Amino acid sequence: MKILGITGGVGSGKSKVLYELKEKYNAFVVEADKVAHELMEPGKPIYNEIVAAFGKDILCEEEPYQIDRAALGFVVFNDKNYLERLNSITHPAVKLYIKELIKDKEDNQSVKLFVIEAALLIETGYSDICDEIWYVWVDKEERINRLMESRGYTREKCLSIFENQQSDDYYKKYANVTINNQNSFDITSKQLKDLLNKFMEDDIIS
């Protein structure tokens, strides 16, 4: 089984790349953010830690008193110290969950391509898990345009989010591959096919 990491800034089109890998190449895809949301549910491993760190003001008003991710997001994205505190709680738990899932898939020999997607894939040390890390790149202005159109973000909100993410140079330095997703997705799709043929070695992608 090959383990591939996918990362990139918000608005770069990672979701479309993941969809292609899953639907066209039968990859088993795990998104770190979705795992984190699952682990933050009441009764799950990190729920109590987050409530202890940020207080009950981040909880929904009705049972089962789930974490209000919008309220939590408002807190952490306005204070880097809080963001670092949240990351210190969530990232180790998510990484452990993914490692256990990898072991399960390896033991069952049911998956040839295991894909991990995370915005902080490099920063949180997934290079020791992944055979390769691929960075999905789109320039800043195009990302802003896409986010304004698809999510209704303001330009100011986009730039605020970008401030909490690494630069293109950082990603390109530490990733094994940079995928140019700036133009037509047909071009990106061709890149993925060529890269996967090389990455998968004996398991040739048709």
Q: Can you walk through the features of this model?
A:
This protein has 206 residues and is an alpha/beta fold. It has a single domain (2-199), classed as P-loop containing nucleotide triphosphate hydrolases (Rossmann fold, 3-Layer(aba) Sandwich), CATH 3.40.50. 52% of the residues lie in helices and 12% in strands. It contains 9 helices and 5 strands. It has helices at 14-25, 32-39, 47-54, 69-76, 80-108, 140-151, 155-163, 168-174, 185-199; strands at 2-7, 28-31, 113-117, 132-137, 177-180. Strands 2-3-1-4-5 form a 5-stranded parallel β-sheet, sandwiched between helices. Helix 2 crosses helix 5 (80-108) and helix 3 (47-54) packs antiparallel against helix 5 (80-108). It starts with a strand and ends in a 7-residue tail after the last helix.
- H-E string: EHEHHHHEEHHHEH
CATH topology name, in short, is Rossmann fold
The number of helical runs is 9
Strand order of the largest sheet: 2-3-1-4-5
Specify the CATH architecture: 3-Layer(aba) Sandwich
- Give the amount of beta strand, in percent: 5-15%
**Sheet of most strands:** 5 strands, parallel
